[in-house]
Amino acid sequence: MSVEDGIDFAIIELFFFAYRDFTSDPDQILADYGFGRAHHRVLHFVSRRPGLTVAELLDVLKITKQSLARVLKQLIDTDHVVQLQGPRDRRQRELYPTAKGRALALALARPQSRRIHAALGDSGITERTLVERFLEAMVNPELRAQIDVGSAKMSGKSHGEH
Amino acid sequence: MSVEDGIDFAIIELFFFAYRDFTSDPDQILADYGFGRAHHRVLHFVSRRPGLTVAELLDVLKITKQSLARVLKQLIDTDHVVQLQGPRDRRQRELYPTAKGRALALALARPQSRRIHAALGDSGITERTLVERFLEAMVNPELRAQIDVGSAKMSGKSHGEH
DNA sequence: GAGATTATGTCAGTACTATTGACGTAATTT
DNA sequence: AAATTACGTCAATAGTACTGACATAATCTC
After folding, report:
1. Which of B 109-138 lie inside 8 A of A, CB atoms?
2. Domain annotation covers residue A160
3. pLDDT tens for each residue of B56-103
4. Distances B25 to B6, B7, B13, B37, B130 between C-alpha atoms, Å
5. CA A156 to chain centre
6. How many domains does chain A have?
7. CA–C1' distance B91–D1 (Å)?
8. CB-CB: which of B19, B113, B123 is closest to A137?
9. pLDDT 10s digits, A36-48
10. In this predicted structure, which of B70-74, B94-98, B109-113, B124-128 has the lowest mean pLDDT?
């Protein structure tokens, strides 16, 4: 059953193929904007957690601020994201999606969501929590705090018009 | 339930986090060899499908031959992979892992497999086929032929010593 | 209040992975 | 004999990431 040497090659490989195709959907859309996968990730988390700070974003993405700089600057310059001075701490920059940014984030998420729904249907899995539990268990325990399934909101207000 | 706008943000995000950590295990080992993720993928598929040709490998990885060239050359120079002239068509180069290559491929797969087993246990999923079916359904239908769960073998002979 | 620390931004240099385009060679097919 | 195929290679470019260094403004600490 391809568990020779006690290694689960089947799921290792399936995970590679699944992720490859999972990211291919938004990649095509992003190309139209001259954006890459890095822009997608930033836009996604800014939309998911409106008001998060630069430091929090770096922590979630696990990249350096120098890597974020270019991508974030482009998203700001193209009016997809805005920065607001932190209310408590004025050194902080709270990141918010604009209406334009939220629209793009949604457009990118739509085909991925469709793929997920289709996969759940095709595989005959009625309990989505099964997949959620498995994926969450794949994440490093000390990093699970970053995941707030359900609590984060994407329907929050954007800051495109003031 | 974070399915606002009809979008399944929960699984989208979990998939990102899960894959991020899934690849972090081998990344650390690869760094010791001066290799990157690209080397891992090549080594994995050469080990999984010993004897596959360059063209077949390009098709699985979905990259160009120019991208493959550098990575493959390094794996050959460091004695992880060997090329044999195709028996039927002498233009082809069949790729095989050496004993050294197979050992590295195994070392890279081990922590990933451990993570998968732990995740299955933690999430209380007793039927591994559930996850396999879901992941396979996430792959583009026209590309599922590339997946031969169970048929490919990693315990095949390597070509390190002749 | 002075000094240390924090949050962010930016400059410079480098590495890895990927791309397109072009050209060459040997082997196979027509 | 000519066309096609499989592979290799050279050159230029792009996207994403890194380390290290330095600057500025705001906050915290003594």
Report:
1. 109-110, 112-113, 115-120, 122-125, 128, 130-138
2. no
3. 999 999 999 999 999 999 999 999 999 999 999 999 999 999 999 999
4. 34, 30, 20, 11, 24
5. 16
6. 1
7. 20
8. B123
9. 999 999 999 999 9
10. B124-128
Weakest-pLDDT range from A14-23, B2-11, B76-85: B2-11
Chain D nucleotides close to protein (CB under 7 A) are: 5-12, 15-21, 25-28
In a domain, A107, yes or no: yes
Cα A150 to Cα A148: distance, rounded to the nearest angstrom: 6
Partner B contacted by A93 (CB < 8 A): no
Helices (H) and strands (E) counted in chain B, each on its own, are 6, 3
Question: How far apart are alpha carbons A17 and B149 in whole angstroms?
Answer: 12
Does any domain span residue B158? no
* CB-CB under 8 Å, A124 with B149: no
Rounded mean pLDDT of B120-139?
94
Domain annotation covers residue A62: yes
Q: Which nt sits closest to A69, CA to C1'?
A: C9
Element (H, E) at A52: strand A52-53
> Residue A45 is part of a domain; what is its CATH number?
1.10.10.10
